[in-house]
Design goal:
This protein has about 425 residues and is an alpha+beta fold. The protein has four domains: about 90 residues, Rossmann fold (3-Layer(aba) Sandwich); about 55 residues, Dna Ligase, domain 1 (2-Layer Sandwich); about 130 residues, ATP-grasp fold, B domain (D-amino Acid Aminotransferase, Chain A, domain 1); about 80 residues, Glycinamide Ribonucleotide Synthetase, Chain A, domain 4. Helices cover about 30% and strands about 30% of the residues. The strands form five sheets. Strands 10, 11, 14, 15, 16, 17, 18, 21 and 22 form a nine-stranded antiparallel sheet that branches. Helix 7 runs antiparallel to helix 8. The termini are far apart. About 45% of the residues are buried. The structure holds adenosine monophosphate and glycine. The site of glycine (GLY) has 7 residues, from loops.
Length: about 425
């Protein structure tokens, strides 16, 4: 089969590497990909906003299946667009993708289907929002409704911070704002829970804990993710049942009740308080770096899984996983998430001795001739599978030391909550 993957991050490189293991794969294309995908797929430099051009390329090159990695094209309706031309696509359609595209859409589903989540209110203008903030309990959480690349969330400790968040959102920092969300601050520990569904049945697709803050000890600014480990330390059978019955199943039903089906990965960002799950947010894709962390544990054929999902026969397949622990450390450019240098050569990659359970997935890299250069904030993902998290972290750090990239920064404490000092 000829398969196309849309995206250019660590997630998409991990998907490409995992698909490549399938005997049925004849050719892979990546739109636009990175230096890692360039080794195993044809990278196609295409504007991801230009659905027409993407469609023309897919038809011309007879691509049998398209996998959409990031949220933006999903929220913009790429699945609906491509399906109009009878292209097989893995990913949720525009209606279903509102679960990530609109926080208010998701909150309204939570209310209607009794899905546990933080108490909330929807506010249509500055005055209403600020009036509410006068007598609110702090800390409180204020969120822009629309896609904001993880930046539209403010945890406010007092009224002044709250007012300033309201102003930023209504001033259009995250695009035109018709309303915003103010919600209760939940105390607990976070967990990422993944499933894959064809709209009728679903399969668990692992759990993870990511580290969003840039500095060790979970301090500093929020980033796209500095590392992750899987499985989450919070998981137990009782909690899993609650997540499925109180959150996942009602959500799949809610999308069905809208007259459509959810098809693809669904990523629930949860807060766990006393073994009770609360939905913080949905993402309509795999997480990054959670995807890179989880996929190396997959023992089944990923292509068969995607096909079963697209062909509405997910209930007929089994998904097998390794029992090992997986830990991922993200190597980013010094300065990220603020300003950082680009176009810096990364020269030792080929010299690192990876064992069969070590992986390097590229993110913001590109190839020029035989050389590899940095392009983005998050540059490489080092992943290791081991019997325990401590060993996995040690192996990754050894590989990072061998790379010795002077422009790089990484956290040495990924997994600190599961690794005894
Ligand atoms: P979101 O983009 O909705 O996932 O929010 C980003 C981060 O803000 C989450 O990963 C949480 O750490 C935090 N957060 C969001 N909503 C809440 C909440 N209601 N209570 C506590 N923390 C929250
Ligand atoms: N790791 C967080 C995300 O993918 O949104």
């Amino acid at each position: 089969m000829i398969v196309g993957i849309i995206g250019s991050g660590g997630r998409e490189h991990a998907i490409c590497e995992t698909l490549k293991k399938s005997k049925k794969i004849k050719e892979l294309y990546c739109f636009p990909g990175n230096a890692g995908t360039a080794r195993i797929a044809k990278n196609i430099d295409i504007d991801l906003e230009d659905f027409e051009e993407i469609k023309n390329f897919i038809l011309k090159n007879k691509i049998d299946l398209v996998i959409v990695g990031p949220e933006k094209p999903l929220v913009d309706g790429i699945v609906d667009f491509l399906e109009r031309f009878k292209i097989k696509v893995f990913g949720p359609n525009k209606v279903a993708s509102q679960l990530e595209g609109s926080k208010i859409f998701t909150k309204e589903i939570c209310k209607k289907y009794n899905i546990p989540t933080a108490n909330f209110g929807i506010f249509k203008d500055r005055e209403m929002s600020k009036n509410f903030l006068k007598s609110a309990n702090y800390p409180i959480v204020i969120k822009a409704d629309n896609l904001a690349s993880g930046k539209g969330v403010y945890i406010c400790d007092n009224k002044a911070q709250g007012n300033s968040a309201v102003d930023e959102i209504f001033n259009g920092k995250f695009g035109k704002a018709e309303n915003l969300l103010i919600e209760e601050f939940l105390i607990g520990e976070e967990m990422s829970f993944f499933i894959l569904t064809d709209g009728v049945s679903f399969k668990n697709f692992g759990t993870a804990q990511d580290h969003k803050r840039v500095l060790e000890g979970d301090k500093g600014k929020n980033t796209g993710g500095m590392g992750a480990y899987s499985p989450s330390r919070l998981l137990n059978e009782e909690l899993e049942k609650k997540i499925i019955n109180k959150i996942i199943k009602p959500t799949i039903k809610a999308i069905n009740d809208l007259g459509t089906k959810y098809k693809g990965f669904l990523y629930a960002g949860l807060m766990i308080t006393n073994n009770e799950p609360y939905l913080i947010e949905y993402n309509v894709r795999m997480g990054d770096p959670e995807c890179q962390t989880i996929l190396p544990k997959l023992n089944s054929d990923l292509l068969e899984i995607f096909l079963a999902c697209c062909e509405n026969r997910l209930n007929q397949i089994q998904i097998e996983w390794s029992n090992k622990k997986s830990l991922c450390i993200v190597l980013c450019s010094k300065g990220y998430p603020d300003d950082f240098k680009k176009d810096i050569e990364i020269n030792n990659i080929e010299k690192i001795n990876l064992n069969k359970d070590n992986f390097i997935f590229h993110a913001g890299t590109y190839r020029d001739g035989e050389k590899i250069f940095s392009r983005g904030g998050r540059v490489l993902n080092f992943v290791s599978l081991c019997d325990n998290f401590l060993e996995a972290r040690k192996e990754n750090i050894q590989n990072l030391l061998n790379l010795d990239w002077s422009e790089g920064y990484y956290r040495r404490d990924i997994g600190f909550k599961v690794i005894e000092k």
